[in-house]
User: What shape does this take?
Amino acid sequence: MNEKKLVIPEVIIGLGNPEKKYEQTRHNIGFEVVDFLADKWGGSLQKNTKFNALFCEVVTPNRQKIKLVKPLTYMNKSGQSVRAVLDWYKLTRESILVVYDDMDLEFGRIRLRLSGSAGGHNGMKSIISHVGGQDFPRFRIGIGKSGHKDATIGHVLGKFSAEERKEMNSLMLLVYDAIASILTDGVEKTMSLYNKKSII
Assistant: This one.
């Protein structure tokens, strides 16, 4: 019987919008995760004009080289940065892990998948378009829905509530543990371990 190939990413991309006004908003949770990983792994994100992104390479505790990316293109053009990184390093789209916010998951819940549609997320739409397919791993972090449909944009681009902020460190540690598991055991095994987990 053939062993399934482990899917272990080489590039972790956090989605968000540049500019101070978007800092710590729900839509920028991908940026926060990459900042957290860089801090944990001793990396320093620097502006990279080739990729139009903040970028660094780190060595994880288990001696893996990982590239961390925060596109500076604004959310709906995130794919431009991702494509530039893949082309420069001659990598396939399966080698990326994209971290982003998801309204369909309640705050504090995480969900991993090996592939799938954009689900209405503009950053993901852009990446799927630029990398030429949707078969790449993604890590969704729940931000919950707004109370009213008309308030969706305000909710997504708004800052986390004070209660949610209090839980943010627990959430980041859960995400970190899941990513550490991905880098050791692959996406598929980590999905079975972490897709039901939540900090709430």
